[in-house]
Amino acid sequence: MPNSLAGDQVPPPALDTVDLVDWSLRNAGNSSSVSVLDEGTKDPWALPQLKDTGQLKALSMASRLRHMGISFLKACGLLGSLYFFICSLDILSSAFQLLGSKMAGDIFKESVVLSNPVAGLVIGVLVTVLVQSSSTSSSIVVSMVSSKLLTVQVSVPIIMGVNVGTSITSTLVSMAQSGDRDEFRRAFSGSAVHGIFNWLTVLVLLPLESATAMLERLSELLLGAASLQPGGQAPDILKALTQPLTHLIVQLDSSVIAGSATGNTTNSSLIKRWCGIRAETTEGSSNQCGAFGPCTENNTVPEDRLPCQHLFAQSTLTDLAVGCILLAGSLLVLCLCLVLIVKLLNSLLQGRIAQAVRSVINADFPFPFGWLSGYLAILVGAGLTFLLQSSSVFTAAIVPLMGVGVISLDRAYPLFLGSNIGTTTTALLAALASPADMLLFAVQVALIHFLFNLAGILLWYLVPILRLPIPLAKRFGELTARYRWVAIVYLLLTFLLLPLAAFGLSLAGSMVLAAVGGPLVGLVLLVILVNVLQQRRPSWLPSCLRSWAWLPLWLHSLEPWDRLMTHCCPGRACGPSQTTAKEAHCYDNPEILASQQL
């Protein structure tokens, strides 16, 4: 019997259950979805083993044909789900524009507030979140700069905020995989690494730009060295595929958003009602030209406008009502498509072929050229984003692949960086197609956007030891996998509440913003420094700061907040996973604790 002891055996020492629970909680960030007691040293970030469906040669001909037919149907279903997923993203962007376009235009009118770099940054974030399109936000900035409502110097922080706000789409997409702990860890870390990279780049370049105007001067040098020639539009492959469906649902007049910011709008509704002009001409005879009357060779009837052919063309609903309808419908379709994509990917990515695909995606060049693999991934990400004409679509497609274990975080990171570069090159080509009076301003704004992302790559990717977004995203992924409500808090704080608070303080003046925000930022930096020293050099700290145990539990642990959120949240959406419950059951049993070697 396990509990029986020999006469000469010494009974195991009594173990303190509370201490072991605390030990387990401290090491929970390094645990996988399988219990620590069962798996031990399993790496939670290792890509999962793909299922082997067996050799087709062992099956009969009928079974092989049936298997191939089912796989073909699954592949068609995957492509169809991906198509409707992209269309739903387009409709979601239209819904956000209908709900927040006028607010975005009104925000940009506050030229006094925009003179503050921090206010310009948060305004760029808020506007991009509201309209769900970095291209639309950039076009507003270009219009205001060309209309002399903004200077190029003021527009630089706004462009930085636009770059930060565009990462919200991948964060929303990752929430669809919160049902599985391992998938959510990988998917959310992928979306977080994009946002962390953008925020770290802003933290370095915003003070530097405010002090030296580096990006503005560098863009002026590049403009002076280049002879600008108006060019054509960038290839719009994705729009050509999705517009036949999305234009049947709704069409928007994006010039109204820029017009509301510049004050030149004459249309109160963003929904496009008229899509063309029909001109009817009646040709007369040249013999009717005479001395007693005018020549009636060509008599033109007044032009008629052609109505648009979409669901809301003749609707009397307001933009707010249409936006709410489109928001609910697009979110429903988006979630359904994501669930289908994940299920079909899990079903298709089996066997040796799937293993080979994953090996190719995450493969490195042989030594000594392994360092080139990441830079090739940057070029691939830039090229695919350039072809898709949307960084949001590209990043939203990468996140589910990370969740199912096809792409690793180390490989997704350079793909996201390449996506940032790809969307700026698209904006640069679009700027070259601008009218002559807006050409210089449009190109300079696009160059600033490109230089910002290029500087971020030089900061956080060129030197391997400085690739800080990867370990930070892993820590954050572990935290959100254990406490899933943290993902919602991160989403609200990063893209809504903190920008709104900073914008509200900026309305009170720069002195108020500095007086309130300065101490808070200093406190956060101090806490981060103390945490780093507690892990690396605790001897450098005074004894009282070597641990946070002297603080109340709710100030240094998420356990009280987790109990509160679990109690308030219905069902199991915010609760711990089955693995966490299993671990807690084991830790509550002293006999199991005494039999385990830690």
Automatic annotation (TrEMBL):
GO biological process, one term: intracellular phosphate ion homeostasis
Transmembrane feature ranges: 71-92, 112-131, 152-175, 187-208, 320-342, 375-401, 413-433, 439-463, 483-505, 511-533
The protein's name in its UniProt record: Solute carrier family 34 member 3
Top-level taxon of the source organism: Eukaryota
Family, as annotated: Belongs to the SLC34A transporter family.
Cellular compartment(s): Apical cell membrane
Keywords for the protein's UniProt record, in alphabetical order: Cell membrane, Ion transport, Membrane, Sodium, Sodium transport, Symport, Transmembrane, Transmembrane helix, Transport
Entry's Gene Ontology cellular component terms: brush border membrane; vesicle
Source taxonomy: Eukaryota, Metazoa, Chordata, Craniata, Vertebrata
Molecular function in Gene Ontology: sodium:phosphate symporter activity
Protein's organism: Ictidomys tridecemlineatus
Membrane topology: Multi-pass membrane protein
One Pfam family linked to the record: Na_Pi_cotrans
